[in-house]
Every structure is written in C-alpha cells, then in structure tokens.
Amino acid sequence: MTQHLLTVEANPASLLNQLRLDRPGNARDGGAKNRSWVVATALAAALVAAGVGAVYWQRHQAITVSVAVAVPPAPSQGSTSILQATGYVTARRLATVSAQITGTINKVLIEEGERVQAGQVLAQLDDTSQQAALAQSQAQERAAEALLDQYEAQLEQAQRDMKRNQSLAGTAIAMQEVEASSTQVRTLTAQLASQRRQVELAHAAAKGAQVQLAYTTIRAPFAGVITAKAAQAGEIVSPMSAGGGFTRTGIGTIVDMDSLEIEVDVNEAYLHNVQPGQPAKAVLDAYPDWNIPAHVIAIIPTADRSKATVKVRVALDQKDPRILPDMGVRVSFERSGSGGAAAAAPKGVLVPASAIAQRSGRSVVFTVDADQAHELGITASQSVGDLRLVDNLTPGQRVVRTPPADLKDGARVAVKQ
Q: CB 3.0-4.6 Å disulfide test: which of 77, 128, 169, 237 passes with 248?
C-alpha cells in the first residue's frame, strides 16, 4: 500500500493519462467543431438578448413632446358671427406685362411699389430695326403714289387722244388709229386700278411697320401698383420663353389695388351657412384689431376633394393701402338680419392645427394621459385662426403639438415644460 502511494505521488501524469477518455475516429477535430458550435450558439444568444434589450429600451424611452389643451369654442356674445374661415387677399385684376415682340431692353422705367397710370410707359426696347423697316415702307408708299399719279396723267392724255381721233374718224385719220387710241385708254384704266391696289398695299405695309415700332414701347394696360420688376436694361425680352435662362418673358407685374378681394376655404359641412350678399367681417393677420366690413360675392361652384372645402369670394367694403395681395385673413360670416343675440357655440373642441396628423389615411391626434400617448381618430372642420374645430375630444384633454412621425399609440412621452 505504501509503495503504491509513493508511485502515484512520484508520477502524477500517469494518473491523468488513465482518466483520459479515448474517442473513436478523429477525436481532436471533433472537439474543435463542438467548441465552434458552442461559441456560435453563445454569440447568437447574446445578439438576441441585445436586440430584445434595445426594443425594450426604445419602447420605454420617453419621447419629449409639447402639448396643448383642448378648449371649447366660446359662444359669440352680442355678435352675429355664425362661421369663421381663413384665406388670403387676392387681386382679381393683375397682369405680368411683357413685350409683343422679341427685343433688347434699352430702358426700364418702373420700380417696385410705384403707382402707374393706364398707358404710362414702363420700358423701351431697341427700335433700330423697326425704324428702318418703317422708313422703307414709307418710301415704297411714296413710290407707289408717284406711279399712280403718272398713270392718271397718261390716262387723261389717252382719253383726249381718243376723243380727237373719234371726231376725225373717216376724214383725216384711219379707223385703225381710232381703235388704237380706244385700246390705249382701256389699258391705262386697268393699270391705274392695279396701281391703286399697290398704293393700298404700301399704305398697309407702312401701317404695319408703325405698329411694330409701337411694340417697342411697353405701356401699362391699366392703372395699378408695380409689385414686381422682372427685367433690367440690356436684357432680351420675348413674349414667349426661348427655352433658355437668358430671355425674359416679362417686364413687371401690375396689380389693380381696387380689385382686391378675399378668397376663403369653407368646409363643406358648413357651406349652407354662407349665401351671396351675406355680411361679413374680415381681420388681417397683420392687423388683428382691425375689423374690415365685407360681404360675400359668390360661392365658387367647385369643391376641393382633398380638403373637403369650397372657395368663397368675399368683397372688402373698405379700401385701404394697408391691404396687400396674398395677406392672410380671417373672415367671420354674420347672420343676416340678426338682432344681436348670442350665437350658439359650435359642437366640438378647438385644438392647434399642428396637432392634427395623418396616420393610415385618416386624421388623428395624440392625447397625453400621465406619461403615455394615445392615438385618437378625429374629424376636423372649421378653422378659427391657428385652431381647428375637432370632434371626439373633451375640453381639457391634452394633445401633442406637431406629433413626430415615429410617435405610436401607447408610446411613453415626456411633456416639455
């Protein structure tokens, strides 16, 4: 026993060799493959765990948002307003003035903001070729008139010769000379008629040359204010585009400020509240404390299917230099013949227009409850300034302003203070 123990202590490697298991075939290669499989499995498990963790982190990571509170529309106490809509000031009479011929601009006589009268010269083109063409036409006209005078004189002489020959026929001269003089008269008469047509043609050519010369002077078609100056001296102007970027198609834009009116979009659901001739009040975004009297001109008989609105033309009963084209405006349509009773508030609540988002082809808002956002389908109707009247909400509910594209139903949110 003692000897055996001493042997083990003296040779421990032999004991390890006895404990090793022998495997059939290529045991070393098999072990390497098993170890590779184990490592791959461990890496895949780690990646799955990391992905699950990232999804969990994203779902529970709060999105910072700004919120607004839905408010009920207040009734218009002592007001006759029954509907509000937003739109823009537009000009019914405006024109981009251009030349009727292609030419080089010599002078531009307008500036933005300048008031011009009908017929006032706005620009002058180079008229060298037109002046030459007019001079040539006038010379041809004078030549045709001189030739006409010559034919008239020849005809008068031929008529006198014919009368003299007729009186001497059968005595002093032969009948052949009488016939020759008569033929001469008819020939000159035809030449005279033809020359008169040539004179008319020369007159028309001269008139055409004068018109072409007049085209080099560009005039205002009506009185108004210059809102845009589109060309400078030295540039080429043409009535139509030449396909390049070096030819102007206009000199400037004139707006008749007396033709300004308002176009607003009215929701189809409230169109029955608007009638031609109905009184209204307009408030410009630039002057919110200024109420401008107005009235409905007409309802444009077509609808915008994408917005479910109809355009309404509104006339401004008060003209003022502060009213400019393309200004934003809010129009309050009034009840005709109202005695000043309070108008009932429309149904729904008001939320910022920016809070309304599109998801899967429908209008939604995201309400905020504690630290979660909830998607809620709504129907938006009339506009009141920057607010929209919507249904399916109650006053006091918080909604997300300008919802991010990645905001989903049930997402965690943090309200920006």
A: 237
